[in-house]
Amino acid sequence: MSSGEIAIRGVSKTFRVDGRPLVALDRVDLDVAAGEFITIVGASGCGKSTLLRMIAGLEREHRGEIRHGGRPVSGPSLDRGLVFQEPRLFPWLTVAQNLALGLENARVDVAQKKRLVAEHLELVGLGGFGNAYPRQLSGGMAQRAAIARALVNRPEVLLLDEPFGALDAMTRAHLQGELQRIWDHEKITAILVTHDVDEAVLLGDRVVVMAPRPGRIARILDVSVPRPRDRRDPDLIRLRNEVLQELDAIKDAAPAALAS
Amino acid sequence: MSLPLAEPAIETSSTASRGWRPSHRLRRGLMLPLLLLVAWEASSHLRLVDPRFLPPLEAIAITAREEIWSGDLFLHLGASLARNLAGFAIGTLLGVAFGLLLGLSPVAGRIAGPTFHAAKQIAVLAWIPIISVWFGFAETAKVVFVAVAAFVPVALNTIEGAASAPKPLIEVCEVLTFSRWQRIRRAYLPSALPSILTGVHLGLIYAWLATVAAEYFMTVGPGIGGLIIAGRERFQMELVMLGVVILGTVGFLLNHIATLVEVRLLRWRA
Amino acid sequence: MTVLDLPHRLPSRPISLRLLRPLVAGLRDFAVALLLPAVILLLWAIGSAYELVPQQILPPPIYVWENFRDMLAGGELLQHAGISAVRVAGGFAIGAALGLLLGIAMGLSEVVDDYVRPLFTAIAQVPTLGWIPLLMLFLGIGEALKIVIIAKAALVPMVLNTSAGIRGVPKAYVEVADVFAFTRWQKLRRLILPAAVPPIFTGIRYSLTKAWTALVAVELLASAEGLGYLLVWGRQMFWLDTMIVAMVIIGLVGFAMDKILALAEAWLQSWRIDG
Ligand SMILES: Nc1ncnc2c1ncn2[C@@H]1O[C@H](COP(=O)(O)OP(=O)(O)OP(=O)(O)O)[C@@H](O)[C@H]1O
Ligand SMILES: [Mg+2]
């Protein structure tokens, strides 16, 4: 897999809210190399989800250009998997059937499909819950199922919108490890949005810090700490503090914007 | 739009959760009906009321037995149920198809939606006379009318259901690059199903009432409605009462069956 | 809320245009909505002009319109509609009032509910269509029959919604009232009745709809006046224009009643949320 690079050039997005324009993203430029792990942090409402949805191809009307493997993104593709901020499981399907949705348009036979679904259920620790309905899952279990659904057809690029937000610390640490393992093993490109700065520096090759109103990239930090990483690594902690400082600076620069 | 409909007995949760022992409540509940029956028996035996108006209960039982033994009752009931089912099936199929078209296609919805919503306001019974002009008094007209009665609630609820598929799930379909047909099958239809079933449930009850109404008005051929009208014309109160009891009982049973089916098909809900 | 991608930092458009947009969209929807009726009317007109359908089966639209005009000018239409309206008003008033009282009693008192509900359910289970021939034998086919039938149809949803509404007052509020040591009367006035207003209103709406359909049923089966009778009469005389006029009027009145009550209900709900 070599075509996992993403190029974002001069991307702006304006929503209309109650007839007034609202600039959600303002001239965003970002190059993501194939196999890179990018994490994005930023205040609520600064356009992180919007950016991810545009990369996925859900949000088609915008200025600027997004390319995946050299080709312009014109709509969703199975090569780019998206884990939404909420689980979005289909309530009338069992967990296993929800996972199988991810393979609906993949070229695999029935036996392979069954095996892949079972493997990915195990992967996210839902081995015994294939036949459960979404309403029988906790919030964190549902989110894990959603992650498995995005992973199951092995996209070149995996887009994750705060995937671990609803999880307890233990499960979160476990899934962070699993995600790193899968990313490393499959050589996929990962772009992960998070509010958790520790998570951002732990997982990312680079951390993108975004600022709100209008949404834009404020700074990009390199995380040149070798893997496997330990979250207690002093270099990581130093980086974390740097990211936090950056976020504080953004907040102080525009207190009025955050207040509204 | 609706027929004069029997209210399905709604079991409110508060009724169930109250503290009385069931036997106690049962005793209270049976009090009024029993008193009523005793008063009925007494007044007809003591000739307080003309028994032609209020025949004693055993007279109704005797009539019922005669009708059963002669096979007439089954003939009437069978005829009614057959046209009920035929009309219901036609109305439901057309209703689901029409509802899906309007619910899934914005263009179709905007063109035909307002006309449908305006036309449904005509009380269903008001269609009987004109249908009898167009289709005669025989079987066809009755089935057509029953189909119209079932069509309205089915179409209405299908439109609502198909249009109500949650946007977040549609986006999941987009991300998974589902085709239009896959989206319909995987997202629109399942999320419309509860609503469709509500419509079919209502359609079943409306169809039954429409069957009887059609038989009242177009009295050719056997049927429970015809039985009741015949009883009224011959002033046979027993026959009328028997017919009305059957009318209510069949409605009750159909409602019950529909509820069971609904619960079974919607297991995925909490 | 529309999602548009506008050029970056567009100067906001003149306000008048922004306000006009929904109006224009509304007009366009309205025009589209009239498309299908227009096509049907056209086909109908063409069909009868070229006598593709016999006049006895479907009279030309112009006949229907003239018939409507004549009936309106001659006062017949208003007379029949008036009779129907009086019947509905009377039956609905009686049925809804009794239903309200019975529903309140059943909602407030478990004893009353225990005694009355099974009998009520049994009566409600027999549809209006079943009661009509039965009561025709008791009451004849005079006004009493119509009033009783319509009242019964109106009573049932009223009782169900009122009692459920009163029973459904959230327990949390009742506990607040208990903490403040409200008397029974205070609880009823300050808590239970206000909380039960929306479901009671829903009951009124259903009640009126049922009353209207019951009117059509009873006038079809046993009447010599009223809109329902107009249908039967038209049927006997093979006057399809009269039948169509009656059907349209029945639809329009049902539509108007439902719309007005729906608006009132929405207004009531918003008032409750604000207050
Ligand atoms: N469909 C939409 N229509 C109008 N405005 C929108 C829409 N989606 C997002 N926005 C606006 O765009 C801005 C960015 O939203 P977005 O969801 O991308 O933020 P976010 O960074 O993901 O926030 P969070 O961390 O809270 O998830 C917000 O101001 C939001 O109000
Ligand atoms: Mg977000």
UniProtKB/TrEMBL annotation, chain A:
The keyword Nucleus does not apply. This is Sulfonate ABC transporter ATP-binding protein. Belongs to the ABC transporter superfamily. Keywords: ATP-binding, Nucleotide-binding, Transport. SMART domains: AAA (SM00382). One of its GO terms (molecular function) is ATP hydrolysis activity. InterPro entries: AAA+_ATPase, ABC_transporter-like_ATP-bd, ABC_transporter-like_CS, ABC_transporter_ATP-bind, P-loop_NTPase. It holds the Pfam family ABC_tran. Residues 6-237 form the ABC transporter domain. The keyword Zinc does not apply. The lineage of its organism: Bacteria, Pseudomonadati, Pseudomonadota, Alphaproteobacteria, Hyphomicrobiales.
UniProtKB/TrEMBL annotation, chain B:
It is a multi-pass membrane protein. Residues 1-20 are annotated as: Disordered. It comes from the Bacteria. The keyword Transmembrane applies. It holds the Pfam family BPD_transp_1. Belongs to the binding-protein-dependent transport system permease family. This is ABC transmembrane type-1 domain-containing protein. It comes from Azorhizobium oxalatiphilum.
From TrEMBL, chain C:
The chain crosses the membrane at residues 30-53, 88-108, 128-149, 211-232, 238-257. SUPFAM superfamilies: MetI-like. Keywords: Cell membrane, Membrane, Transmembrane, Transmembrane helix, Transport. Probably part of an ABC transporter complex. Probably responsible for the translocation of the substrate across the membrane. It is a multi-pass membrane protein. Belongs to the binding-protein-dependent transport system permease family. It holds the Pfam family BPD_transp_1. It comes from Azorhizobium oxalatiphilum. This is ABC transmembrane type-1 domain-containing protein. PROSITE patterns: ABC_TM1. Its main location: membrane. It is found in: Cell membrane.
